[in-house]
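Why does this matter for the project? Reviewers at the last site visit asked to see concrete outputs rather than summary tables. In response, this paragraph embeds two records directly. Each consists of the residue sequence and, immediately after it, the corresponding structure tokens. Nothing has been edited or filtered.
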Amino acid sequence: MAVNKELGIFLRTPINKPIAYYLLVCLISTLLGSLFLKVDLKTGFFFVLKYFEYVLVYFMVANHLKSKGQARNYLWALLITCVIVSAVGMLQVPEGGRVTAPFEGETGEPNTLGGYLVFMISITAGLLLTTTSLGLRLIYGSMAFLFIVPLLFTQSRSSYLALVLAGMAFLWLSEKRLIILIAFIFAGLLLPFVAPKVVTERLSFTFTQREHRGQQIKVGGATIDTSTTARLRSWGNVTRDFTEHPVLGFGVTGYGFLDAQYFRVLIETGLIGLFMFLFLLASIFRLTYHNFREALEPFDRGLSMGFLAGFIGLLVHAVGANTFIIVRIMEPFWFVLAIVIILPELEAEVPGEERSLKSLK
């Protein structure tokens, strides 16, 4: 911005208002929580600042993007990064335990790594389904397979479910429905025989964990494992406690740790915050789906379709994780979102300093 005076801080896009509304609610609820409740102002401030960081990533990309070639280069950088992360993850497999991302210290977060991999697999699959180049098909297919391997070894049930829902989204979005359906059936029949033992054990563990008296609940006659039980009980606690501050919540970080995005938004920012959060998600979905429907070039269509499928997967993943506040998921998410939103402007060949997205409203 210092070099290019024509660049503004915030490019005008159709989701600016939903972004501003949600961030404003987070800021107000946190300030009120620091004044009247249990929010530590320093902790809450830096958490909210992290949300602003994601938005700045979005606007930096949107402001700087000027050509399709630039968009492709950025995307290759994202894919190569995921290749490196996946390779590091695969090196952890012989050690046993759950695969986690680099730079996490002794205690990893395999669930959030799983969410990141689901999103990147979706992007790669979207490009794979639309490219007309045999060479690119081989590259994208190899990448998707590489990304799936560490995903399986994260042993993240939320990520497994998210991947399934993302795959089902392709049945809705792609014109190659028959091929995708056959691949689904083939994978479903083959998976029980080729899936790593840790994957099948992790899935069955949900209902076969030995009894821990008082630490497990029963759903439909089936005993749920302690981890899932703790999560379900935390949801119940939220639905009970949020009535103490139903409008703006306890403030960001004001309630304590909660590993479920939608319930966390509800308890921290109240009904107003939850409404603005869902409004933001709905606005993102509406706009990117519009761009997907209007896209003509294979790259544009593949990237938009992959983003939508990955977005649907992350919406499911967020049921059991704080998906939309995790750095490793949200930075690539907002990065790709900016590319998908700006692509129609690149098609129109409008100069960077004159770009406006009023036509997409």
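We now turn to the second protein, recorded in exactly the same manner.
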Amino acid sequence: MLTRHETSAAFMAEAMASASGVPGACVVTLGPGATNVVTGVAHAYLDRSPLLAFTGQLPADRYEITTHQKLDLRGLFAPITKWQTRLTAQSAATVVDRALRLSLRPRRGPVLVEVPSDVPRQEATDTAIPSAPHRAESVVDAEAALAGGALLNASRRPLVLAGMDANDDRVVTPLRRLAESWRIPVMVGPKAKGVFREDHPLFLGTIEGLGTVKLFDFIDTCDLVLMVGFDPVEFDRGWTAAATVLHIGPLPNDDRYYPSAVELVGPVHEAIERLLAAAGPPEPTHSSDELRRFREAFRAYVAPERPGLTAQQVLAELRAALPQDALVTCDVGYNKAVSAQCWPAYRPRTFFLSNGLSSMGYGLPAALGLKLLHRDRPVSCVLGDGGFAMVMAELETAVRLELGVTVVVLADDALSQIKAGQERRGYPATGTTFGPLDYTALARAFGIEGRDVRTVADCRDAFRAAAGISRPTLIAAHVDPAGYQLE
């Protein structure tokens, strides 16, 4: 599918890979085409997504004597890919097969495949070796499971912190059984939203979202943290909690970002099952009343009342208009912070964002990729006006491909998160504000429906009207940035 920018192509391919587990692919030309795709590849690298990035390159017999658009692409992509290779007619099938396998091997990530411009005209001469069926077997050590069970038995205030490697349908049932049996509260990272229903009384919140300090304060009261499928790249701060950590994940805790007393290494769902079998009869821990009070106070804290329309209210109306299996992306900035915390997710792989790299411009192309993958499911994206302006040309892509996504722009004419940081330090707002856009006129220019909304009722009407339309809808919600400021 043709996109209007190479970075968008990588974001689309990565979102499809993240949602499906099947490696995505994007194809760009040499020179600036390759450099433009760097951001999308770096995003896939830090968010652990399988992606093949095919780039053009000068013909091998011209590379040493040509200067125009000559770049060492394998060197350029080395820090942000798992492998960098050059494809030839003699190795095409073998190279692609190896690239696919490497992209899927934990930790998953992107591979660069450089294609000299004379190669596509040549006849491929090799044949890939058929791949044998492979299933990653559990390697959870029995003694480690017993040690983990002993930690849980001895704990009085445990907590589950679930991350991206737990964002799998197979994890839902054992994770819920673990939490409910022992009355363990659950927090998630932004990449794991939906693995534990957010309307569940044991769910507390999403770390690294709006109001995350309150969640870390709660963590400080716990004596055991079950780090379930958490990758250190998901943290945006150092780990300072004094609680004992039980590491559960597909890889050992070699990063040492946090100390772990016990490590259960293997498929996350199987590791949880082993832990449950080893822990003995459950002994409920936290008081239900305490958790209910925390949930209620935290929800009120992250959704303060303000004179104008808030992003939290916009999200609430969008959530009410969509089924539980709807797919939602967000961009980066305050829109990410509020979406990560205030968007209730109910199923795995229904909420998508750029977290490790935290790249603006991700939300819209990611939503288009998801709609390509799931044309039968509603797809929406929540963007800041800064990030939207970077990629608004992709609205044409959406129109051309008949991708009926709902594009929600939280408009306040500023890079509000950076502006707020300047103001907290007593600096004048410099380089963080810009002029308004006429969003309805912009929508008409792309041949789509556009609406400005300024009240909760406006939002409700606009989101309901957007349902089921085969073309994109652009909704500009003019929000009060004071809603991002918590007291």
